[in-house]
Every structure is written in C-alpha cells, then in structure tokens.
Amino acid sequence: MSGDERYSIGELARRTGLSVKTIRYYADSGIVPPIDRSVAGYRVFDAEAVARLELVRTLRELGVDLAAIRRVVDREVPLHEVAATHAEALAAQIRVLRLRQAVLTVAAKRGAGPAEVDDLRRLAQLTARERTQLVDDFLDSVFTDDWATYPGVIVSMTPELPDDPSAEQVQAWVELAELCRDPGFRTSMRRLARQHAADNDVPGLPRPDAVAVVRDEVASALAAGLDPTEGEAEPVVAAVIGRYARLHGLPDDADLRRRLLERLILANDPRRDRYLDLLSVINGWSGGAAAAPAVDWFVRALRARMPVEARSQPNQVIV
C-alpha cells in the first residue's frame, strides 16, 4: 500500500468492512480525519486511514471507549498502557459477573424468593474483612475458649476465598456463610467440639476423634457391602471399639459403647460433611470421602449389638 493512495469514504468502507455511516462518525470525531476533500466536497482519506480504522475496529470490539482510542491513534498514550487499563477493568467486570452468576445459580437451584435472593447477594458481596468476621464469629461460637487448644483444627476449618474466585467458589462461599449463621449448626458443632475436647483431656498428642476412627476402619466394610447388623460385620465392630478404647485408655464395656454411640450420633449431622465439602471447594483442596456413610453404617452396627434400652437414642441429636 503506497503512501500516495487516496480513498473515498465508500472505498474505505469496502476495504475495512465498516459502514459508511460508522466511518463518517469516526471522521467527524477526529479519530480518522480525512486528508482532503474532493472537488465535489467529499472526504478523501490516505492509506493511514485504513490502518487506523482496523485498529479502531479491533479496540472497539475489545470494549475500549472512543476517548481512549483517540488518544492511542493520536499517539498521546502508548497502546500497551490503554490495553493494561482496560484489561484491569474487564477483570473487575468478570469478577462481578461471576458473583452474579453464583447468586443466580444458587437462587435457581433453591427456587428462592426475592428476600432470599437479596440475602444471597449480600453474602456474596461481603468484603474480605466482613467474611473474616463472619467466620471468626462462627468459630468463636464453636470453640468458645478453646482457640489456643486446637489451633490446627481451627485453621483447617477456616475458608480462604481467593481474590479472583471462580463462580463455583463463590457459590460454595454463599452456602458456607449460611451454615456459619445457622444457630442450630453452631450449637451442634459446639457440642461436637466439647466432646472432642473431652476425648483429648489426657496429655499427649491429639488423638483421632470417633469419626476418624470409624471412617478408617469401616471403609473396607462399606466397599464390600457388609450388612452392619449381621455377624459378618463383627470383626469390623471389634476393630473400631478396640482402637477407640486403646486411644483413650478405657475398657471395652457398656459405658464406652454408649459414649462412642453418643459421639457418633452428634457427629452424624449432614451439615458437617457439607461444611467440609464447601471448605474444600473454597480453599482449592482435594475433597475427602464423606464421613456420613461410614458413621451411618457403624451406628447401625453398634446399636444392633447393644442392649435394647441403650438403642433408644435418635439418629440425629435435636439441637
């Protein structure tokens, strides 16, 4: 393309694929000025106008505003600076869109009404400080004065939403935040924390809790499809109770079995597993196996081997 080429506005339109009206607008705006006018008064453009129009079209398709485009084509600012500014703006818009998508997805799954949608929106829009405060309030209510006693447990229960979360992470945060505000869940987790503290009241290294013992020992029984109420489950039951008794230095007797049953019933809250699943999504951790199937299996197995009067505890502790 030689430097002395001259084009009418119609020829520019054919070369660039832009409409005559659009090119006229850019010319009137000073973004692609003509170099001359014909004898009949029509605008005349040079070869540089073709390159300018192609750049303008690209930047407009990327969402750059005309004022910024004019500064670029007039060489008032480098293109890379404008690109960086608009990339940052787009990143902010994307974060907002992810947030909206997350709220609407959760709302659609639940069939939420206007009040619930507004509540979900507020939870999704909490600042980092507000999120921290909400979680700290929840953990304070669960562990009361035991923060210093179980720092590792508390850290493992703390969500850390990244600065640029995915839509899935925002959805998980919204649901986890609702759990943190649930008074019933707070009470259930506080009772579980106290039982865990009671199980670790002997000096020494922290011991696995009742759920961890059951999950470790029952996995193979679940995989094999063993009936917890039949004799085939007896070795598994004996292994769980024996290990739990050894960990706590207690005899395998009726009191121990009642204690173990009580802890498992309290721990067998589906909200507990859900909290841990959501935590894994938010923090980008690999999800562990849900505890509920193993606990359900062992509660049935333990009840089948206890005196009738000791089987009357409900499957769920009402809180």
Number of strands: 3
| Order of secondary-structure elements | EHHEEHHHHHHHHHHHHH
The end-to-end span amounts to: 80 Å
**What's the gyration radius in Å?**
33 Å
Low-confidence stretches: 315-319
> Mind describing the biggest β-sheet?
3 strands, antiparallel
Roughly what is the average pLDDT, rounded to an integer?
Answer: 85
Which percent bin holds the helix content? Answer: 55-70%
Account of the protein in words:
Residues 315-319 have low confidence and may be disordered. With 319 residues, the chain is mainly α. 65% of the residues lie in helices and 3% in strands. The chain is rod-shaped and about 110 Å long. β2 (36-37) and β3 (43-46) form a beta hairpin. The chain has two domains: 6-77, Orthogonal Bundle (Multidrug-efflux Transporter Regulator, Chain: A, Domain 2), CATH 1.10.1660; 126-319, no CATH class. α5 (79-110) crosses α9. It has 15 helices and three strands.
Layout of helices and strands:
Blueprint: E1 6-8, H1 9-16, H2 20-28, E2 36-37, E3 43-46, H3 47-61, H4 66-73, H5 79-110, H6 114-124, H7 128-143, H8 151-156, H9 167-181, H10 183-199, H11 210-224, H12 234-248, H13 254-267, H14 270-283, H15 292-304
Antiparallel strand pairs: 1-3, 2-3
Helix pairs in contact: 5-6, 5-9, 7-10, 9-14, 11-12, 11-15, 13-15
